[in-house]
């Protein structure tokens, strides 16, 4: 029997009105849709009909971009995902919650609740928050130093996982005859006392239907890669070239092996911004319109913020002032996007104006504009060359651009035998091909939040 072609994993990022800075201005789009529940439910239902692995919600703790020119704030993700869970049956539900400005017990409880109510479809995108605007909303003058943020994140994840493991399988008895609801010998305190957190436990929500919610992580710095390799089951990344994506892919999976993990139990999904058209001419026209709709002040401000430069140092028809750029480790925002933007500008010798067009208004994720066949070609190419296991898709415009992707690109992948034609499981872990974690009782009083091996 011939070997089954490698299957792609695909999520959709419901990013406001779309990934481009001017998506909210696109003809036929509702400018206020990202504040309406129906917007998220519509995309999620479409994603489930297209058999995607999951919907994904990004999040932040502040208005970081200039909301004068673009909807940049977001609704709280676990609330939105709970509403999505009510109208869907299979699709995974991944929400972003920061380890910098949350409490481990509350995060563990919120995600365990979502997982219970959805039948085992929850995932947690762990992020460390780097911007000063978010820090000021939590009583700090500036964000915590990069290395310390990741140290906190590692302990945070360990505590959350210990709480999820505080209920053994079979702890819920619900024996009416004996009058026994729970076997308390199978519910355990974690008594965590670490460098940053002290949590007694146990969690007050039972064990997940899928063992634990799926841990999702994103980060391209050395610290970010180390955390992804240590705890990530799904890893979101940003890469503008196949070579860069392959380097990241191999590095994270080799680091995971060094932690004693199986590399094939980590699913790596680069971000992919899609612009779908029926013909090359239609694609070019749509791509140009999307660029024109990005307000230039927004684009310049976002680019300057990514690079850590004053806006006045960026002249539209000149190259980036490379001599003024801070080193990536001094960047105040995402080091991932700082590196992508600078490398793209250097490699392609772009002016600032050309760079803004190339980045879709300053985003930094890879943009693929093409026919359904062309987009399927590039997705398969990256997977077959060891640069990805699939993609976190960010359509140009929501919902229309995602409709095009779901109705045209997904069937093309299916025709080539590279995407499922039906769900084979009911949990997010099953969609991703990830095993259910074995139960490991938390080691009470260990002080590190570790669990017994």
Based on the model shown, name its key terms.
8-stranded parallel barrel; two-stranded antiparallel sheet; TIM Barrel; disordered C terminus; 453 residues; alpha/beta; 2 domains; 13 strands
Please outline what is shown here.
With 453 residues, this protein is an alpha/beta fold.
Q: What can you see in these coordinates?
A:
- The protein has 453 residues and is of the alpha/beta class.
- The protein has two domains: 9-280 and 365-432, Luciferase-like domain (TIM Barrel, Alpha-Beta Barrel), CATH 3.20.20.30; 295-359, no CATH class.
- It contains 14 helices and 13 strands.
- The strands form three sheets. An eight-stranded parallel β-barrel has the order 1-2-3-4-9-10-11-13, surrounded by eight helices.
- Helix 3 (104-118) packs across helix 5 (146-164).
- The radius of gyration is 22 Å and the shape is globular.
Strand order of the largest sheet: 1-2-3-4-9-10-11-13
The amount of beta strand, in percent, is 5-15%
Task: Report the strand count.
Answer: 13
Mean pLDDT: 90
Structural class: alpha/beta
Fold topology:
Elements: E1 9-13, H1 37-49, E2 54-57, H2 77-87, E3 92-98, H3 104-118, E4 122-127, H4 132-136, H5 146-164, E5 172-175, E6 180-182, E7 192-193, E8 198-199, E9 214-218, H6 222-231, E10 234-237, H7 242-258, E11 267-276, H8 280-292, H9 296-307, H10 335-348, H11 352-358, E12 366-370, H12 372-384, E13 390-395, H13 400-415, H14 428-432
Parallel strand pairs: 1-2, 1-13, 2-3, 3-4, 4-9, 9-10, 10-11, 11-12, 11-13
Antiparallel strand pairs: 5-6, 7-8
